[in-house]
């Protein structure tokens, strides 16, 4: 168990070692600075409050888009998995939106709605809903019909049936969609901010890209990657293990 906990730390240490070797071989801080060269820059951005302000703006968009995408995608996916007729009607829509480039949706939302927070969040949500629906649909198809029949025999209320019969079976699928969802959503949020917002990690990366400042691009990118790693390790992975525990009990 202790080895399993150390493995991610050792893995990241190996990645940082590769970064150090590449930086030393490059021998040009303008192209690839060493990790320790970023520390004073990160401290400077933290002290000024800029890093926390832009990090908070990006997190706000990620949380809203994630919550909306998970709710809508789960509802649509469950309905499609439970109803073959509905699945035949909506499957072409799902295929179209799964293959529609994120950049197209972002640009269209900005053109139709304007350069607003609503447009940014809607663009990210529309990009992720089809992925969540596709994963949860498979969970809906895999539901145990015997358990469903038992719930009907005992005349369980809809809310009770959802809580004790359907959601425990869907939990691994929802957890899987959530894990992949966070990884995809925050990347799309950065593109949204890069193209049309005046705050956020993506906006700062765009700013320092124009100034050819590789070090500060890395500072802002790595700050959000660290936050997402903490979310993954402290929230999503434990939730996924807990959601799947009943299958091996």
Architecture overview:
The chain has one domain: MetI-like fold (Orthogonal Bundle), CATH 1.10.3720. The chain has ten helices and no strands. The longest helix has 39 residues, at 158-196. The chain is globular. The protein has helices at residues 2-26, 35-48, 50-82, 84-99, 102-113, 117-141, 145-153, 158-196, 201-210, 214-248. It has 249 residues and is mostly helical.
Q: Can you give keywords for this protein?
A:
MetI-like fold; 249 residues; globular; mainly alpha; 88% helix; 0% strand
Span between N and C termini? 19 Å
Low-confidence stretches: none
Quick check: average pLDDT?
Answer: 83
Rg result: 22 Å
- Continuous helix count: 10
Q: How many domains in all?
A: 1
Percentage of residues in helical conformation = over 70%
- Give the H and E element order: HHHHHHHHHH
Characterize the largest beta sheet: strand count, sense, and whether it forms a barrel: none
Structural class determined from secondary elements: mainly alpha
Q: So what's the CATH class? A: Mainly Alpha
Give the second-level CATH assignment, the architecture. Answer: Orthogonal Bundle
Q: Can you identify the CATH superfamily?
A: MetI-like
CATH fold-level assignment: MetI-like fold
Number of strands: 0
Structure, briefly:
The protein has helices at residues 2-26, 35-48, 50-82, 84-99, 102-113, 117-141, 145-153, 158-196, 201-210, 214-248.
Topology:
Elements: H1 2-26, H2 35-48, H3 50-82, H4 84-99, H5 102-113, H6 117-141, H7 145-153, H8 158-196, H9 201-210, H10 214-248
Helix pairs in contact: 2-10, 3-4, 3-6, 3-8, 3-9, 4-6, 5-6, 5-8, 6-8, 8-9, 8-10, 9-10
